[in-house]
Design a protein that fits this description.
There is one protein chain. By secondary structure, this protein is an all-alpha fold. Helix content is 75%, strand content 2%. It has one domain. Strands 1-2 form a two-stranded antiparallel sheet. Helix 2 packs antiparallel against helix 3, helix 3 (58-81) crosses helix 8 and helix 5 (95-108) runs parallel beside helix 7. The two termini are 27 Å apart.
């Protein structure tokens, strides 16, 4: 990977990691699905009126908007609102790397090296530590929602490869247009009109700052950068980089929320760091599908 792309990957993962505790700040006063709907409304409008639609079929744009807006971030925010700490959520979402590696082998015949297999096992051990370390009162449903969001992220990664999109920023903006309506509808079905009525009193500087970071940093900048990397490199090369996200999420939780990991949480972070390092070693492929 070129140095500039590696630096881009670090920037993207840092912003995404910080987005977890910053989202938690926004969720203190707003319904999780409504907050997600507002995020993608601002990510799409007014930008779709100034940015030309990417030259891919509309079905790819709509599908990606539903996957990463509703199925991914809707579930993440809902899971955090149920009690999953931001650092734990950031760690659990990294199961997407395992799903993405599998999709790369099955669908794109990408080779899977021995180092990547060992790295995946180390990361899985780290994620197991997160589950074991979860407080007894924490919602197990929230943990399940985070894992389901990881599946959604892996499918979104596959969709980027299949669509062969070139205009990655325009793709993110236009895809965001398809997320708000389902999210507003789900908010209404879940809680009625109460979240919408209360929003007028909840829209302070804290909420506006959280939304601005989510829209312009975690959505516009990060999804442009991530999708660019997916366009330029194999899924198996890009996906493991997402393991840096929980490291920045944990640091952000310490700085912004005053939440420190337990000793087992630090062990989980160390295992994920080791997984990233091992997975980057260039060994010969262990698992691959031959092209015919």
């Amino acid at each position: 990977m070129q140095k500039k792309h590696l630096l881009l990957a670090v920037l993207v993962t840092a912003i995404w990691g910080l987005n977890f505790p910053i989202t938690k700040l926004g969720l203190t006063s707003v319904d999780p699905l409504l907050l997600t709907a507002l995020r993608f409304t601002l990510a799409a409008l007014p930008w779709v009126f100034f940015i030309r639609r990417p030259q891919v079929a509309l079905r790819w744009i709509a599908a990606y908007g539903m996957i990463f807006g509703v199925a991914m971030w809707g579930l993440i925010n809902f899971g955090i609102s149920l009690g999953v700490p931001p650092g734990a959520a950031a760690l659990l979402i990294q199961t997407s790397a395992f799903f993405t590696l599998g999709w790369g082998v099955l669908l794109f015949r990408e080779p899977l090296s021995g180092a990547q297999v060992i790295g995946a096992l180390l990361a899985a051990l780290g994620l197991a530590c997160v589950l074991y370390d979860s407080p007894a009162g924490e919602s197990r449903a929230g943990l399940l929602l985070i894992v389901l969001s990881a599946v959604a992220w892996s499918l979104g990664n596959v969709l980027i490869k299949l669509s062969r999109v070139q205009e990655v920023f325009a793709f993110v903006v236009w895809a965001s247009l398809f997320a708000p309506v389902p999210l507003f509808l789900l908010t209404w079905l879940k809680s009625g009109s109460a979240p919408f009525v209360a929003l007028a009193e909840q829209g302070g500087a804290g909420l506006m700052g959280s939304l601005a970071f989510q829209v312009y940093g975690a959505t516009h900048l990060c999804y442009w950068g991530w999708n660019l990397l997916l366009r330029e490199y194999p899924l198996s090369r890009v996906a493991p980089l997402s393991l840096l996200i929980p490291v920045f999420a944990i640091l952000g939780s310490i700085m912004l929320l005053g939440v420190w990991p337990s000793p087992l949480g630090w062990m989980a972070s160390a295992l994920i760091f080791l997984a990233l390092r091992v997975g980057s070693i260039q060994w010969r492929p262990l698992l691959s599908r031959q092209k015919y």
